[in-house]
## 1
Amino acid sequence: MKSGQASRTAEVAAAFRASHTLYAEPRILEDNYAHSLTGRFWRFALSNRFTHWLMFNRLLKRLSPVIAQVLVRSRYAEDTLAAAMKRGIDQYVIISAGLDSFSLRHSQREASILQILELDHPDTQASKRQRLQSLNVSLPTALEFVGVDFERQSISTALAASGFRRDAPAFFSWLGTTHYLTHQATTGTLLSIAEYAAPGSEIVLDYSVTPESLDADKHSELRWVAKLAARMGEPLIGGIAPSALHSVVTAMGYDIIEDLSSEDQKSRYCFNRRDRLCPTVACRLLHLRLSRDRQAISEHDARGGAEEGVAETGRLKRPRAVGAATDYALRDPDCATKEQPLTRSPICTT
Ligand SMILES: C[S@@+](CC[C@H](N)C(=O)[O-])C[C@H]1O[C@@H](n2cnc3c(N)ncnc32)[C@H](O)[C@@H]1O
């Protein structure tokens, strides 16, 4: 992100949700606030069928897999949250919320008290709050905004300064962001949640796989998207091999509930569509739960057990403090390490 400027990709993601809500059938996600949350340019592009067709069916046609991914990731997070609420979870942390409108839609639909915390980069959050003010919508009383820059600050520091309840499990979503972060920032944030949140807490996030794990015929599509993201000032730097990420989060005390490939996402949410919307092959959706046995893992870790276990896999170095976050450096040959340059993530501008 450019300093002093709200995230442009957050705006693009909202424009994708608005486009889908206004013009697609059947809907994967219905976001009736997305249109008014976008800026003037996108509101104009979405204002009638012709400008919409020009923008989405001509100029941005190649972005269709990314558009599908933006819709599917939010739908998946909201479905997973609904299931978690049935199990009694009553606090929701939306990490890097961008122009996500869940809090507005939820408060209209349900009377239940879900405490919602929106965490985001202060520049993006300030711009969103201004837009919400100009929309004159009433915000849910149980919504709190918390500013945080993950390249400088840990999520636990941000949560400690908020109304977050550490003693109760929470649900976290982290969508469309790890693609733009260094591995240190991504793994540092996951570790910070693992150390701070109560056992049984859950997180849904999306991540980009490394280009090497994709067929060569996908590379030109991916390069095009990467170029576009870089031009918007938000280069894609976060590609991770699934096996390496799994080793890292398991060592932190997470259970892996699901890790959906694009095929899994397609069969769950985009099956048999006339418009052939289908999520990009480059992004996966990961659902994690903090193990109830985490205490035991921490004690084992404190005794150096994790170091031995991890050394066996050859994938992790011991975490070490880097700025505000602890660094779980990846050693997988497909992944970035301090010694190797960071792998450019292939896709997911949003
Ligand atoms: C593509 S947007 C995704 C927004 C939203 N989650 C969605 O799905 O539409 C990326 C988000 O990451 C946030 N972000 C980028 N770098 C960040 C950082 N260093 N610290 C905190 N948030 C960051 C941006 O402010 C933006 O809200």
Note: The longest helix spans residues 64-86.
## 2
Amino acid sequence: MYYGYIELIPKQEYDSEVVEALLWQFLCALERNGQITKAYTIVKEQNYRLFVTFTKEDSFAEGNDGFYVRQNREKLKELFDLTVTVLGENLSSGRYCTCGERSALEMVTHRFDEDSPFVCLDCGRSVALYELPLLGDDVYDEDYTVIQYWQENYSAIDTLWMNGLCDRYSGNQLVKFDSALNKQGVLLAKELEKKAGCRVYYHLSCAYGKSVKAKKIGQDHIHYCPSCGELMERKKIAGLYTEDFCHTCALCYDAH
Ligand SMILES: [Zn+2]
Ligand SMILES: [Zn+2]
């Protein structure tokens, strides 16, 4: 969530067409590894400046590089010195988790979300993707693209609903726990859980004009799990917000 720029100070002559292609690849790789957020650009003055939002203050450190970032950084370092200037906090991005250990994660997003879709349930903040295990075992699965594809799909469907269509298709995709969109998300959450060594809860929507089963207890309406049918457990997360959880199915809803 720190906005700033990476400046490239030339060490030798270079071909600007080759370098510019390399810079876009580098930025894309940084984003796919969760080191920067989506909104980035290149400004060419005397030197190239890459304007980015770093997810954490030290997210650009080489130790956080994934396979593709490392490949591109090495090529750039032959031609340039890379320096970082942080201008301040970017308020369109959230604060990130700095917990040493995390007892559980939640997978959640919405159409304006620019951050990682994983939230630490101990501090309630986003978790930088590069701090999480990679999902694939394949040599080509060296970043978090598969998670970002799901996030982009979710944002697209949420936008379709919110921008006025309010149709049955987009509403059902968001609310039904067994819709194609939510099945894709649950599958990814389960895969991450196997590798992360902690529970990964998948967040379901419960608005969008669709009725979701709940039990009135005092002033509260506690949700039933849409998968196993059991009453969920209401929990406050880091004193920030309250959600209902099914620990058997690893699903959760916002509390009402
Ligand atoms: Zn945390
Ligand atoms: Zn359940």
Note: The chain has a mean pLDDT of 93.
## 3
Amino acid sequence: MWEQVSTRSRKSFWMSLKLFSYLCAIHATTQGLANNQRKVLTIGGLYASGAMTTWQNGSGIVKTVNEAIRFINERSQLLPGYKLEIEWRDTKCQLGHGVQALFKHVNEPPTKIMLLGGMCSAATRPIAECSHLMNLIQVSYGASSFYLSDKEKYPLFFRTIPPEKGHNAGRLAVLKYFKWNRIAIVTEREPYYEAAFTSLTKLLKENDITIVADEFLGESKEEEHESPIKILKDRDARVIVGLFSEEKAVEVFCQAYKQGLYGEKYVWLLIGWYRPRWWEIHSARASKLDCKTEHVTEAFGNYISTEFLKIGPSSPDIIGGEKAYLTWKNKVDELGFYSGFAHDAIVAMTLALNSSAEVLARRNQSLADFTYNNTEMAQLFKNSLSKVTFPGFSGRVYFNKQGERKGVVTVSQMQDKETKILGNYTVLKDKLVLKSSKFVWKGGNIPVDQMTTVDKLLKISPGLFGFFCAVEVLGIIMAVAFLAFNICHSDHRFIKMSSPRINNVIVVGAILIYIAGILLGIDGNFVSPDVEAIVRCRFSTWVACLGFTLGFGGMFLKTWRVHKIFLNRTKKMVISDFQLFAMLGLFISIDLLILMVWEIVDPLYITKHYTGREEYSPSTDTKYKPYYIDCTSSYTSLWLGVIYAYKGLMLAFGAFMAWETRNVTFSALNDSRYIGISVYNVVFPCALGMTVVNVVINRDACFAVLSVLVVFCTTITLCLVFVPKISTVRADPLGTNRPRFAAAAALNNQTPQTRPEERQQLRTEPNRELNPSTRPKQEDRQRANTNLI
Ligand SMILES: *[C@@H]1O[C@H](CO)[C@@H](O)[C@H](O)[C@H]1NC(C)=O
Ligand SMILES: *[C@@H]1O[C@H](CO)[C@@H](O)[C@H](O)[C@H]1NC(C)=O
Ligand SMILES: *[C@@H]1O[C@H](CO)[C@@H](O)[C@H](O)[C@H]1NC(C)=O
Ligand SMILES: *[C@@H]1O[C@H](CO)[C@@H](O)[C@H](O)[C@H]1NC(C)=O
Ligand SMILES: *[C@@H]1O[C@H](CO)[C@@H](O)[C@H](O)[C@H]1NC(C)=O
């Protein structure tokens, strides 16, 4: 009975077991069929939340991507036979959490076919370094760091967010467009901005754009933003690239306002993704720094901003549907603009998988066969992804060989507190399109990158030159008059006795010195620097040297002859005019020799000599650098030394002769007193004048001092030589008087006070060694008469 029951129940047990297994089998079959129809592909999603992600909305990204996956799974043309799923993990924008997220993705089933993310470069870099070892394609939507462009290190890394490098190329294009070659950069101390800074400086250097200042903004302490701005001002930065957040921007512009670094001369290039009216959002920060929002807006002026196109144009071909696109666009402020890049990343992955699936199907393989050791499939995915192109939420998506998105940079300008999009830059084609007429500039013109620097030649004021020129011309006329007088009256006994031919030479010398004086004033007012080098530097030196030798040389030789006649009583010295001219010729030859050697070996040339006192004209924004033209040669002081020594010797010789013959009383013969005065007149003012000229750099003062020297020395000397003669000839036009009396008469006429003294000298000769007595004097006279006439 029990047995019966037990067999029956056993039977029914087996029956039910059979039924169960049958049901199970049916179930399994249907399951298998379902799986055959739609194999699940799981994507490893990476997002970020937490304190370090305030600049982007992680949940907005997750929401947008989930929406996109739902849409993809609904489409029969997208991944037919597969069902896309995503598993999200949080990287918290930190290296450690990022690596942990990768471990979990890899270690926990199901097998992930690709990775989507991450959001920040800090977490994405270590993940990308490992993911390719597991043959995982990684498509980031948020990591724009330029480090990730390294294909050697990150071979399977792609990104839909355009890298910072491309953004900098846009900035560079704008700088070049406006011809700004001298800029400053202000960077916030934060990895994102610092990375942008690094790649920007590299790019600028490659393109020969000078960075006059690169300043970093310190940590949150407001006072610290003062000095970077000060440095910008000191270095006269006009075009400033700002790589900082909105919050810092408020502080920077507040400082800029306080320091006066604003206005028509300055232009800022900022990051374009600041929120509309961002300065109002952060007005609390501004007021903490005693700034009003008006100050901030005043300081940033019409700044230019560049940013990647984040919201592409609407198009019916958008994958995900135009309706979805419009919905997303309306909510983009809430979702964050990275959500657009994330959406495009998942679409790009889908399309790559779709085309890979076709290839695999031909090999009797399926996407679901992917394992972490399947290098072949990873390469297939990589190739497919490289070829993907489609219109996405963030504009057209395609990748270059490095797996980078070469996007479009939009260029905008802040006008009336509104951002106006005025152009775009296509990174791939390196093409900038700007509506330049729509840009607004405070000063009316595009600001320049630096003040214009103009060299300003210091010239002698024309009035001063005119005055001295006139004086010197008068001097020449006077000299010519003396010459004429000398020639006309050469038969006059008194003149005859005064070596008229040597006197003519003296006059010619004086005329040459006057001419040299005029040549000194021939500067940039009249001629080009090349001509100036010849006229003012070289020619005037020759003229002055020869003039001096002729003038003073002649005078001293005359005294030398007197000296020889009167003081060498032992033998009769007869020195003819010929001998004197031969001596003069020797002097001149020495001059010519020195000058010629100078001219050949080391000729004078002009150099620009900047005075260092720069003037700034605010109205034209121009800096004037005054300079004057200096005559120099390699060894100027050596040459001048030789010439000065030679002339000095001549002067010393003259002075000595004048002293020796001071008591020869023939006024017709003896110019010794006048020569003494002349030497005095030349040496002291010249020494003084040269000192002044070397110290004073003012062109006018120099010229005036030199001209006064020329006019004063030459005129006094000339007058000392000729005026007594003229008065003598006047008093005695026929030359009947003996020279002695003529001299006496002249003295009588001119300076009656000196007459008794003179007479006494003539009559009662004191017993001086050098003094000839009355008797020899007769002899002297005779000798003089025979020798000179
Ligand atoms: C982020 O996105 C989520 C989902 O759309 C939204 O609810 C939230 O308000 C957003 N947060 C911010 C700060 O915009
Ligand atoms: C995806 O692949 C299927 C065939 O596997 C093809 O028919 C479809 O057009 C593809 N979709 C796209 C968007 O390329
Ligand atoms: C794929 O499978 C089919 C049928 O199972 C077979 O006929 C074909 O030869 C296979 N192709 C390859 C490339 O293995
Ligand atoms: C991957 O590893 C598994 C087991 O370790 C092995 O069976 C398979 O053949 C490998 N696949 C490839 C593509 O190397
Ligand atoms: C760039 O600007 C030009 C002129 O405004 C426009 O025609 C073009 O479509 C823009 N390109 C992109 C990619 O937005």
Note: Residues 363-364 surround 2-acetamido-2-deoxy-beta-D-glucopyranose (ligand 3) (CB under 6 Å).
## 4
Amino acid sequence: MPIIFYGLKQIHFDRSADGHIHSACPGCGQTGSLKPVKKVTFIHIFWIPLIPVWFKNNVKCSQCGYTGKEKQQALQR
Ligand SMILES: [Zn+2]
């Protein structure tokens, strides 16, 4: 019987086109390094994402890699 690798995989999609976040990063304190991302959790089989199960709007820091909720940082256009 073949072994099937499966599980959950998270992918961050860039949402910079939606606007910019001007508040400071909670991780490194740098202003302007946060960008909006959409975090999508997929069910994967052999690390190939197949079925999206969760969507979440997050922010990600390009300097330190901090990822967090978008709530505190308002998106400014
Ligand atoms: Zn940071």
Note: Residues 10 and 41 are 4 Å apart (CA to CA).
